[in-house]
Specification:
The protein is mostly beta strands. Helix content is 10%, strand content 55%. The longest helix is centred in the N-terminal third of the chain and has 20 residues, at 2-21. Residues 1-19 form the signal peptide.
């Protein structure tokens, strides 16, 4: 877990240095964040509750109205990112989760929507597959939330279902054997991925 945080910190710092080398840096004024160019000219006026530096892909994650969103250097809204660990979702396998009209999908490092938001919940990609569900809900569980109910399936990085959304749970996925252990009718069953 520590390695993951160190790697993410490295990526954020690298993105920050690249953005700064292009001359775009964040600044704070009266408790709000904006961005300046290398000459110190304001290119995005202070309006965000929090801001991360622009990445090498030319996007920045900022907090607007208590939501993490992705913007470009022209201050155009690109998407609302899924909130994870009090910040924007991590990019895993070149994709991260976003939220649109109460559904989840996946975006790339440029905040371009790669997989349509049509799932009630989606787990991050692992070995080229992501577990998704419909009919499930996030319920409070202490200071965290957990997923309950619904039916589960698996998608690939193109958004294609490799296992239909019809199982009570996905217990494990074996990408090498192209199979998954699922819960169906209260029993554990191994099924092949398409």
């Amino acid at each position: 877990m520590l390695k993951k945080y160190l790697f993410i910190t490295f990526l954020l710092l690298t993105g920050s240095l690249i953005a700064q080398s292009k001359g775009i840096t964040s600044f704070e004024e009266n408790g709000l964040f904006g961005f300046k160019d290398k000459k110190g000219n304001v290119i995005i006026k202070p309006q965000y509750e929090q801001a991360m530096e622009f990445t090498k892909s030319g996007v920045a994650f900022v907090v607007s109205k208590n939501k993490w969103i992705c913007i470009n250097t022209k201050n155009q809204f690109l998407l609302e990112t899924f909130l994870y660990d009090n910040g924007p979702d991590y990019i895993v396998g070149s994709l991260a989760r976003y939220v649109e009209e109460g559904k989840m999908g996946f975006h790339n490092e440029r905040c371009q929507k790669a997989i349509e938001a049509k799932f009630d919940f989606a787990y991050p990609f692992e070995n080229g597959n992501a577990i998704v569900c419909n009919g499930c809900q996030l319920q409070p569980d202490g200071e965290h939330k957990r997923i309950v109910g619904g039916k589960y399936g698996i998608i690939n990085k193109k958004g294609k279902l490799v296992l239909p959304i019809e199982y009570e749970a996905i217990l494990s996925v074996d990408s090498k054997k192209r199979s998954a252990e699922v819960k169906q009718d209260g029993k554990s069953v191994t099924v092949k991925l398409q």
